[in-house]
# Entry
Amino acid sequence: MTRDRWIRRVAKPVVFVLCLGPLGWFGWLAVSGGLGVNPIEATNRYFGDWGLRFLLIALAVTPLREVTGWNVLGRFRRMLGLYAFFYVFLHLASYIGLDLFFDWRALWADVLKRRYITIGMIGFLLLVPLAATSTKGWIRRLGGRRWRKLHRAVYAAGVLGVLHFFLMIKAGYQEPAVYAAILAALLGWRIVSHLRRRMAPRRTLSANG
# Structure
């Protein structure tokens, strides 16, 4: 079996199932009474946490690929990004369906009045076009350069997601602080990597001169 076939037939299905693990664990918590005294809040928090985790995991793929030299990691980035959107969508859906009972006026009022909901909603809206254009067909339609520019919005979505977490909680900032530190490291790596790529041609010209 060739490497490409192994990735397509073995590795990707395994990663796909593993990414469903948090959803399966949630199902167990739901039926076993493990969601605590406030299951609606626990549900919303659970999916929000996993949405942010998957977003950071997806952002970490490129740094890990370049640091380790395992280019194969790039083959999983799209799947991880879509799972990030999936769990963020469940986070939003649980808030609208379980907390607000699909009261759209109440949702609009919350978006206008509560900063953390405003920020979270903006972050979700940034992810929608990224999920919608994640296919190879859309990459061809947009062209690689425009597609990459569009998908840089994922960094803004990550910042908004962490900020949403900080503003949402009232005490115990250790967990969002960890997410913020991870995101800062990923953004810092991207900035340094971009500067190195821009400086490389100049260094080559200087050496030749």
